[in-house]
Amino acid sequence: MYKSILKAYSTSEIIQICKYLNKDYNIYEPDDVRWRKIKYALSKTPENELFELRKSTFSNEFVNYLIMKYYICERVVKYHFIKHLQNAIHDIVAFEMSIGDSRIDICRINGKLCAYEIKTEYDNYDRLYTQMLDYFKAFEKIYIIIPDKKLTTIKEHVPEECGIITYRIDTNNNMLFSYRRAAKENDCDIKFCIQSLSNCDLIKLLKMLKEKPYKVKNDNLNLLLNIIKEKNIWPTYKLFLKNKYENQWKYLKDNFENILPIDCQSFFASRMNPDILYEKRNGHMAL
């Protein structure tokens, strides 16, 4: 039924529909609210067809179908890259880790701290220079993930030390990744890293170092700044990050097949039961 509805729209119109639904997509919205947005986006679709569509599927499923098939945005690339990484047994992966004034799309902890920044065909490079300054202080290896056709232009915007991974979609709608340039190992700034932590994280890190934490963030930060003058805490910091994200990553891997692709990051953050969030009825869930 999806295809019959979409016949009324041109490719450019479908992309605009996807952009609108992706920008406004919220996994926690009630189904009724999301259907109103779908109705607004599908302005040329008759009421009776929308009614039949709603009877046959959930709003999450329909939005997922549109975005995964027609709009290769950051959500889509994240899903495919996470799928690419999930079988690495000893790795821990996290989404949107805050560092300095930036948030890295994907962080991978596998003995080294690796950062992956995604730039799709719809993104510009306005903030990339500032982001790279932060990433090179906090991660031992940094990669940029881009479409195949952006390989030449991206080299003008990232340093030689930054690895490059390209992606393309094959005829079966699978995303294939190619490592075009290896990332060079980078010396990180532990001071910058701990200054990016919340007070809760500072306390946990101090406890791992067998230090007694304070209640006030600035006191904990100053204590750590004094500690790093005397000893190397980088291995402990990496272990702290691994412990912080380990349960979330395990949850996502364990439930990966029951989660719609565009919702991976939301489930990583919430660890809620997919059955509850999707409001399954009689086992119906067309992934």
Task: Describe this protein's structure.
The protein is of the alpha/beta class. 49% of the residues lie in helices and 15% in strands. The chain has 14 helices and 6 strands. The chain has a 6-stranded mixed beta sheet. Helix 2 crosses helix 5 (59-70) and helix 10 (199-208) packs parallel to helix 11. Mean pLDDT is 92; it is low at 281-287.
Q: Report the average pLDDT across residues.
A: 92
Low-confidence stretches: 281-287
* Main β-sheet, spatial strand arrangement: 1-2-3-4-5-6
- Cα separation of the termini: 15 Å
Instruction: Tell me the radius of gyration.
Output: 21 Å
Order of helices and strands: HHHHHHEEEHEHEEHHHHHH
Largest sheet: 6 strands, mixed
Q: Helicity, in percent?
A: 40-55%
Helices and strands in order:
Layout: H1 2-6, H2 11-23, H3 31-41, H4 47-56, H5 59-70, H6 74-85, E1 92-99, E2 102-109, E3 113-118, H7 128-138, E4 141-147, H8 151-154, E5 163-169, E6 175-181, H9 190-195, H10 199-208, H11 217-230, H12 234-255, H13 264-270, H14 274-278
Parallel strand pairs: 3-4, 4-5
Antiparallel strand pairs: 1-2, 2-3, 5-6
Helix pairs in contact: 2-5, 10-11, 12-13
